[in-house]
Amino acid sequence: MIDLELLQHAVMDSRDGIAIADARAEDLPLIFVNPAFERMTGYSHDEVLGRNCRFLQNGRIDPESRAEMRAALRKGQGFSKVVTNYRKDDTPFWNELSISPIHTERGAVTHFIGFQKDVTQRLLVDEELRARNRDLESAKKALEELVTLDALTGVYNRRHFDDRMESLWKISSRTGESMAIFFIDIDYFKTFNDHFGHQAGDEALIQVAQTLAESFQRGSDFLARYGGEEFVVVACGMDQEPARYFAERLCERVRELDFDNPDTESGRLTISVGYTVVTPHGGLNAQTVIERADQALFEAKKAGRDRACEATGSTHGWAPARRSYEVSRRSNS
């Protein structure tokens, strides 16, 4: 059996607060607190004896913690939680509280002993570390956006497209899904810039990019600014007919934007679209398909612009289609 004098010194010299409450008396009054409890709370021994320890909440009740504690004590069980308490001068501190029941030989609970540790500094350091981590994550995200996003339009840039295209191609190769690739170019953009100024040109690029983003909103769609006035869209899982519809609809939607362009046949800002739909297999690679879609764009521009042109395959390989979907003429017919 441990020496009682040694036990008393251990309790009195402990750096953690120790308090004992009488479980047999009404409202669980305190019957003992050690010097560390006094230093931690600012209350003297005489000020707290006979009182329930709820005075440490200073009228600021945490309903959840109170309910948990009451339920545990009512069952004669222990309770542990970090809670907010208040010193005598009303300054808050974080209290790592642990309460244990003291039983008689027959198992009856006679007292509760509570151990308090002031963990305020530790939690402040933890919160500072979390804040720094949040700042680092924000900085990392900003850096990633700087590296992957086009600064003007907010869509992905060419570098990220080159990286992402290979992974999208591999995914489609594994799943066997079709893939549609669209190349979009603003018609006569240089002369538009020269005529209306670079500010108007930037605004046109932004609105065209926004129109494309609104048109391709699936999680598997990928939009990037390919360079200058050219954009590229990769739509995994898209078949030929939906691709044809989207290509034609893009031409319509851009023409509906509030931009004039005296160099185009319609007098409006227009785009040309080249696209192809493929199912990746061993005889194809991503670069070949990109070149086919880009060639289809060239065919659309050569055929008069403001239209969509598809590169189709044949038994002899892939070649640009010679058919163009002249949206403006079809819609007026």
Characterize the largest beta sheet: strand count, sense, and whether it forms a barrel: 6 strands, mixed
Return the string of H and E elements. Answer: HEEHHHEEEHHEHHEEHEHEEH
Task: Write down the domain tally.
Answer: 2
Distance between the termini: 105 Å
Regions with little confidence, pLDDT below 50 for 5+ residues: 314-333
Strand content: 25-35%
- The CATH superfamily of the largest domain is known as Reverse transcriptase/Diguanylate cyclase domain
The CATH topology of the largest domain is Alpha-Beta Plaits
Helix content: 40-55%
How are the strands ordered across the major sheet? Answer: 7-8-6-9-10-11
Broad shape: elongated
Q: Which CATH C-level class of the largest domain is it?
A: Alpha Beta
Alpha carbon gyration radius: 36 Å
> What is the number of helices?
11
Structural class: alpha+beta
Lay out the secondary structure.
Elements: H1 4-13, E1 17-22, E2 30-33, H2 35-41, H3 45-48, H4 63-74, E3 79-86, E4 92-103, E5 109-118, H5 120-148, H6 158-175, E6 179-186, H7 189-196, H8 198-215, E7 221-227, E8 230-236, H9 240-255, E9 271-278, H10 286-302, E10 308-314, E11 317-325, H11 327-332
Parallel strand pairs: 9-10
Antiparallel strand pairs: 1-2, 1-5, 3-4, 4-5, 6-8, 6-9, 7-8, 10-11
